[in-house]
């Protein structure tokens, strides 16, 4: 079971395969692994102890950042995610980034962004489309169109508690859609990055 893996100088964390989206570009559709991990499919979600043990076996000074990403949505394991961040913060000042679909507050039915304060340095949220209708086409969230507004609200919420917040889209959308995403990000006061579909 791969919990931690290395990718482009970062130490990546694979907490779950669960996700409330089914993005048309999701890497899980065509690959089993990323970086030095042959497979990121989990036979079960790792326990908090297993995740912390995995961290204890790594020298964090060897990496430029820790990234919660993996083959699923990290906030679906919110308690373990926060416990791991607290452990990291107790032993290192390495930057911590969360890559997320931004639907934690909708999925868990509670306020999540304040829990990141003092733990997470960067939250990268998948915007993926400039309107609710287009968002549903690209990400196929289990919540339907209301997921789009929830994602935008999560961007605003994270800005209050996290030093760096950014939004992304994958270039499976048209350049015109990407431009509208860029403008939407601008209106939210966060940077936008268009990622390559690989
Ligand atoms: S949010 Fe991430 S893990 Fe979930 S389907 Fe989309 S790309 Fe895949």
Brief characterization of the structure:
The chain has 198 residues and is an alpha/beta fold. It has a single domain, classed as TIM Barrel, CATH 3.20.20.
In CATH terms, the superfamily is Aldolase class I
Shape-level CATH architecture = Alpha-Beta Barrel
Cα separation of the termini: 24 Å
CATH topology: TIM Barrel
List of distinct ligands in this structure:
iron/sulfur cluster
- The overall strand count is 7
Describe this structure in words.
The protein has 198 residues and is an alpha/beta fold. The chain has one domain (4-195): TIM Barrel, CATH 3.20.20.70. 33% of the residues lie in helices and 17% in strands. It has helices at 48-56, 78-91, 104-108, 132-139, 146-161, 175-188, and strands at 4-7, 10-13, 65-68, 96-100, 122-126, 164-170, 192-195. It has a seven-stranded mixed beta sheet with strand order 1-2-3-4-5-6-7. Helix 1 packs parallel to helix 2. The longest helix has 16 residues, at 146-161. The model has no long low-confidence stretch (mean pLDDT 95).
